[in-house]
Design a protein that fits this description.
The protein has about 260 residues and is an alpha/beta fold. It is about 35% helix and about 15% strand. The chain has an 8-stranded parallel sheet. Bound molecules: phosphoenolpyruvate (PEP). One of its GO terms (molecular function) is aldehyde-lyase activity.
């Protein structure tokens, strides 16, 4: 279903009216985690002012340590909905448990399945059946074939509104949090008709790498990028070292617009 063999035209997925696909390069930005109404609104205003058309923000945070901030849950979803009402930006937010899919989908414009759940087949089937677009991150140790098969689990439930997101993979390298697999962009686009975006924030894990990795992603033909921003990264409860501040995001957006679209 997700293969390009039977569907040669590349697909566009509409998220609350915002297209992600071959004719555009979509900027998604927002806080890694929803922390407070003020922080989320400020991050969304930064995103919108820089030209982002979708707001990201996690209310459910799958953290490596069980002692780290796990997100605000439904209270975070309510904050996102309020910020959407205020800014007009549709929301992309993660769901980590099949039991929460209905609840998260009642707030979200696009459901995010994160790297740690990329082969959680029960979750993939649940998001496939809920009737909302899905952003599927690549598993940090998944081959491209495994990633596309994960997408197939969603598609099999009748949902072809899937956006693939390359977010870096595990390699021997320790200088970056993950290694951005730039080649995954054209490879996945050739194998699948689904849009492919890149997360330069979670791949590098470092603010100074976000712009160069964005350039690499766009040059490779990515259909968009998803970027962490925070009004006060030093106070962030999650992934502050990779969050951009206002001026950085504007610069990134300006640079993105300099690349001519790839055919
Ligand atoms: C995220 O985007 O908030 C996130 C946790 O990303 P990943 O699943 O790629 O680590």
């Amino acid at each position: 279903l997700v293969s390009r063999d039977n569907h040669p035209e590349r697909s566009t997925v509409s998220v609350g009216g915002v297209p992600i696909g071959p004719d555009t390069v979509t900027l998604i930005a927002g806080p890694c985690a929803v922390e407070t109404p003020q922080q989320t609104l400020e991050a969304a205003q930064m995103a919108k002012a820089a030209g982002a058309t979708l707001l990201r923000g996690g209310a459910y945070k799958p953290r490596t340590s069980p002692y780290a901030f796990q997100g605000l849950g439904e209270a975070g979803l309510r904050i996102l909905a309020d910020v959407r009402a205020e800014t007009g930006l549709p929301i992309v937010t993660e769901v980590v448990d099949a039991h929460d899919v209905e609840l998260v989908a009642s707030y979200a414009d696009m459901l995010q399945v994160g790297t740690r759940n990329a082969q959680n087949f029960a979750l993939l089937q649940a998001v496939g059946g809920i009737g909302k677009p899905v952003m599927l991150k690549r598993g940090m140790s998944a081959t491209i074939e495994e990633w596309l098969m994960a997408a197939e689990y969603i598609a099999q439930r009748g949902n072809l509104d899937i956006v693939l997101c390359e977010r870096g993979i595990r390699t021997f390298e320790t200088a970056t949090r993950n290694t951005l697999d730039v080649s995954a962009v054209p490879v996945a686009q050739r194998l699948s008709h689904l849009p492919v975006i890149v997360d330069p924030s979670h791949s590098g894990g470092r603010r100074d790498l976000v712009l160069p990795l964005t350039r690499a992603a766009i040059a490779a033909g990515a259909d968009g990028v998803i970027i962490d921003v925070h009004p006060h990264p030093e106070q962030a409860l999650c992934d502050g070292p990779q969050a951009l501040v206002d001026g950085d995001l504007r610069e990134l957006s300006r640079v993105m617009r300099q690349f001519p679209p790839l055919l």
